[in-house]
User: Which sequence fits this backbone?
């Protein structure tokens, strides 16, 4: 037996003992008109509150609602003190007789999670608790009213009686009733606001208790009002009516609880059946939304390789935080592996068993949808990467055009002019012509050099002729810092892989020169588990930003176009390591 | 060399360049024995004419990759008396070193642009025809410029580096002396100093010397 269960049993026993004591008081009373009926109705109400309260407490130990419910039952029993023939006990009973009612209002305000939502609600309730005790004082200090004396002629004297003063009593009585009505009205407004702010599943859970509570409050407010106005017959009728409504609250709550368990079992088994029917995209969400009765329900799928959550279209999504007040999330696992999450209304967190069974039932279907989402995410990525590749191609052409135009083309134009000048001078000033031809020769050498570099940048001939190893050796030889070639493949790799690997190294070395402040870089290309693994490491300052420049982005696209992936490890202060893994 | 003109076969897939080279060489006193448009044609012409030198473009049909280079290797293997001067569009030290790795005798590698510098070009053709070697200055610069772990080249003086570069290009002491406008005696002193600083065995023969220098530069990384 857990400590919680022990405590609950102790409370139940206390309720039985208290009930027995109350019954004894009523039986021995000389001023209670129908002791049998009084005991029966009183104990029925008190014990049903305590009983359902303890049940709710046991089911949801974290929720204080059950405790409040039990408290209503206990405070309700305090009213039986008025049956005492002893003046002091009777007086205390009168003072505490309406306490249960404020506890009940407290219960309603704290429904359904057992917590008050605003600080001022607590102040309001404090006022209510105070009023419930102060309220009977006018009657106790200045003598009972006519009506009171009529219904309880044999009641003991108030222990607090100063002197009979009908005027003072009536004035203060009216004041207390007015404050009471005002507090009840504010509580009603708060409850209606709660209702309006609630989502559909929350409303479904709230409805029974909230509406019976509201009915009870309305009846009581009217009773207080008419009491102040002195319409006694109506007050009697309303008193009975409120008793009836009040007595029904725990039963309504209990029925709601049981019905939700039955409905849940039905919903889960129906869900299982429907999941077994026809697989289809998009409908899983609807089916789970039906089963949980939450139309705002969303599904998120876990992409293991990307380490992020996506929706069924493959777009990245954020899950609500653990303590998000509006949304909750429930993980869905399949064979111990995370496949997704159900993002739902927070109120469903009140019913962890239901969420658990739905999540368990949805596992396989979620896995299927996850695979589809993964595919869509991949297609999405490919689309984006393809667009970038096309754009990069266009950019590259533009760059080439500009280089050709600004470089070799200008030089050739200049050369053409120089030759034309030389031609004009060749007869009259042969020396000058000779000089011009020399200049032309120089210009031409420069133009050729530029063209050569440009062509090498586009695609080094040695890469196709001799393969990656030789091309990387050539690249290393041209680097302005020491580049060690640790491992190079001895045999040729497929051409697109060699090209991608070459440009990865070329771009990486360019970045090392530009940003890393490195004295040395190491390049290696190895074959590992069916992959060509290209690694460029330097001893520079690290802290490289993976989003820096279009060069790296272009490389990522180039590598992922071959189903490979790029990893950048660049802790500040300890060098940069760029790694590309391309399946061979 | 005796007085009879150096006989050359030219292989290049561009007719324009072939004709230009041919005219340039003939004007400089060479005899162009034949022209070829691809490697197969080249091998046939070399076999038929037994030229002193074959001037070969690296890229030729049908694959436009390195068939010129492969043809050059075959010529060196099958016709030891025919020197080979490979012309390349690009500075690829790997090709040059590959070509010169077995033997630097009668072998040369020049950037194609060099043909415009008539003196340098004809000098290189004559040098390989005479049994020597020719390596493009840009390739040499690249080899000298490589960053090394503990670079002994840093111990060389600027003048010694110049001399080392010219040696790597395949020049004789006399040619180096002429290029640097110093006496041959001074060049010899530099060479001795370089060899001792780089811990190389001194050697007199030019082509052996080139081989040693190139092997050293290549092994440096």
Assistant:
């Amino acid at each position: 037996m857990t400590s919680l269960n022990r405590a609950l049993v102790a409370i139940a026993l206390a309720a039985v003992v208290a009930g027995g004591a109350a019954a004894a008081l009523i039986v021995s009373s000389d001023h209670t008109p129908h002791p049998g009926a009084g005991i029966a109705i009183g104990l029925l109400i008190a014990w049903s509150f305590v009983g359902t309260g303890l049940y709710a407490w046991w089911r949801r130990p974290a929720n204080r609602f059950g405790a409040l419910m039990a408290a209503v039952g206990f405070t309700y029993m305090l009213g039986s003190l008025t049956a005492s023939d002893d003046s002091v006990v009777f007086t205390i009973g009168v003072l505490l007789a309406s306490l249960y009612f404020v506890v009940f209002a407290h219960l309603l305000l704290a429904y359904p999670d057992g917590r008050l939502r605003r600080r001022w609600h607590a102040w309001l309730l404090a006022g209510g608790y105070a009023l419930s005790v102060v309220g009977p004082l006018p009657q106790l200090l200045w003598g009972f009213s006519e009506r009171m004396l009529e219904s309880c002629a044999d009641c003991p004297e108030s222990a607090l009686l100063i002197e009979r003063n009908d005027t003072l009593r009536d004035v203060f009585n009216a004041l207390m009733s007015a404050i009471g009505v005002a507090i009840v009205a504010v509580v009603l407004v708060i409850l209606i606001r709660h209702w309006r702010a609630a989502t559909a599943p929350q409303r479904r859970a709230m409805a029974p208790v909230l509406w019976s509570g509201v009915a009870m409050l309305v009846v009581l407010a009217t009773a207080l009002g008419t009491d102040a106005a002195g319409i006694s017959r109506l007050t009697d009728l309303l008193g009975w009516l409120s008793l009836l409504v009040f007595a029904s609250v725990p039963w309504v709550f209990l029925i709601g609880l049981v019905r939700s368990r039955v409905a849940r079992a039905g919903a889960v088994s129906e869900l299982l059946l429907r999941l077994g029917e026809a697989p289809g995209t998009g409908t899983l969400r609807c089916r789970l939304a039906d089963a949980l009765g939450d139309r705002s329900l969303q599904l998120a799928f876990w992409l293991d390789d990307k380490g992020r959550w996506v929706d069924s279209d493959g777009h990245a999504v954020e899950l609500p935080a653990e303590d998000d007040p509006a949304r909750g999330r429930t993980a869905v696992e399949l064979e111990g592996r995370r496949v997704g999450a159900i993002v739902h209304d927070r109120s469903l967190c009140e019913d962890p068993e239901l969420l658990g069974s739905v999540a368990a039932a949805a596992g396989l279907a979620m896995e299927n949808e996850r695979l589809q989402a993964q595919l869509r995410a991949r297609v999405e990525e490919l689309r984006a990467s393809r667009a970038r590749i096309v754009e990069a191609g266009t950019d590259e052409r533009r760059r080439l055009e500009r280089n050709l135009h600004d470089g070799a083309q200008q030089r050739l134009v200049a050369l053409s002019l120089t030759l034309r000048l030389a031609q004009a001078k060749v007869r009259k000033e042969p020396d000058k012509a000779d000089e011009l031809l020399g200049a032309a020769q120089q210009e031409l050498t420069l133009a050729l050099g530029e063209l050569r570099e440009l062509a090498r940048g586009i695609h080094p001939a040695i890469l196709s002729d001799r393969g990656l190893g030789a091309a990387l050796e050539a690249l290393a030889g041209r680097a302005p810092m020491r580049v060690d070639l640790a491992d190079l493949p001895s045999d040729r790799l497929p051409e697109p892989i060699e090209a991608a690997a070459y440009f990865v190294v070329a771009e990486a070395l360019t970045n090392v020169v530009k940003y890393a402040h490195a004295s040395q870089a190491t390049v290696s290309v190895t074959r590992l588990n069916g992959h060509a693994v290209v690694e460029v490491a330097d001893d520079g300052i690290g802290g490289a930003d993976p989003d820096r420049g279009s060069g790296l982005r272009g490389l990522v696209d180039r590598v992922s176009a071959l189903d490979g992936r790029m990893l950048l490890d660049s802790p500040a202060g300890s060098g940069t390591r760029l790694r590309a893994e391309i399946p061979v | 060399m005796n007085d009879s003109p150096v006989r050359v076969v030219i292989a290049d897939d561009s007719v324009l360049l072939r004709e230009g080279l041919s005219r340039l060489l003939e004007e400089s006193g060479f005899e162009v024995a034949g022209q070829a448009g691809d490697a197969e044609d080249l091998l046939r012409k070399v076999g038929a004419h037994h030229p002193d030198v074959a001037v070969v473009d690296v890229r030729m049909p049908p694959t436009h990759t390195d068939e010129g280079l492969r043809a050059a290797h075959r010529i060196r293997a099958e016709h030891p008396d025919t020197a080979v001067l490979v012309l390349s569009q690009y500075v690829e030290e790997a090709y040059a070193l590959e070509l010169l790795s077995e033997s630097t005798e009668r072998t040369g590698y020049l950037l194609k642009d060099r043909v415009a510098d008539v003196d340098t070009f004809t000098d290189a053709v004559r040098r390989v025809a005479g049994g020597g070697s020719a390596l493009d200055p840009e390739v040499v610069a690249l080899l000298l410029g490589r960053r090394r772990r503990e670079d002994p080249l840093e111990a060389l003086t600027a003048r010694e580096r110049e001399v080392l570069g010219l040696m790597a290009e395949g020049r004789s002491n006399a040619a180096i002396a002429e290029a640097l406008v110093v006496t041959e005696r001074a060049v010899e002193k530099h060479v001795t100093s370089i060899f001792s600083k780089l811990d190389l065995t001194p050697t007199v023969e030019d082509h052996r010397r080139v081989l040693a220098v190139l092997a050293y530069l290549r092994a440096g990384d």
User: Anything to note?
Assistant: Residues 26 and 32 of chain B are 7 Å apart (CA to CA). Chain B has two domains: 7-135, 141-219. Residues 141-219 of chain B form a domain with the Arc Repressor Mutant, subunit A fold (CATH 1.10.10.10).
